[in-house]
UniProtKB/TrEMBL annotation:
Stated family: Belongs to the cytochrome P450 family.
Name of this protein: Cytochrome P450
Localization of this protein: Membrane
Positions that bind heme: C214
Keywords, alphabetical: Heme, Iron, Membrane, Metal-binding, Monooxygenase, Oxidoreductase, Transmembrane, Transmembrane helix
InterPro entries membership: Cyt_P450, Cyt_P450_CS, Cyt_P450_E_grp-I, Cyt_P450_sf, Cytochrome_P450_Monooxygen
Amino acid sequence: FLPTVKNFRRKKIAKEVRAILEDMVQKREKAIKSGATNYHDLLGLLLESNNTNDNKSKMTLDDVIEECKLFYFAGHETTSMLLTWTMVVLSTHPTWQQRAREEVMQIMGSTTDPPTLDQVAHLKIVTMILYEVLRLYPPVVFLIRQTYKRVTLGGLDFPAGVRLLLPILMIHHDREIWGDDADEFRPERFLEGVSKAAKHPLAFFPFGWGPRICIGQNFALIEAKMALAMILQHFSFHLSPSYTHAPYAQLTIHPQFGAPIILEKL
């Protein structure tokens, strides 16, 4: 720990977040014991795992707090960045913005009610756009996986316990996989679905893949489709002249200088 201004601020914020979550957990535990509430939400399900005789499956207070922090980050930060980059991209591709709006208006009309799940399921163009944005600006730049048994990959033999880094951003922009237009916004590449969008059926994995795929994948996509549909339904938008395109990769990809977008009510 270096005593810099940023590190002191991070430490202070971490303490405040922990104190808030610890208080929430303790209050919920008391409410559950008194019968005033149940396990029908995320925090309740996490606490329910402790009502077992198997000590190996029980979660400590630290475990519960870390899971709550993870779900907040995964459910808020990544989805907000997906919507931010989608609006940036559609601002620079007005034809696709209009195609998406026409689809939304055809399916949803001019109602002020939120879209239903059935309506969301029929938003094909919106889905293609979101997939392409996820490819260009994946919510997580890389993933780390650890081998649990000996495995051979690409002619190399890895024993159990080796940590492998999966560079999602690099693979999503690989011209050998996606073609010479790998850096271009072309939603039509997903016209026949994810598996046929690239030369390899598993080349698109913004949420990971396999048994440890992001459990919030479907929810995040539904949330993004609903939000984007409601924006397209009521607004047109374009980039402010002050916008500077500078994707900045940390764990997620941020617009380094923000994304000032001008909305006009339809």
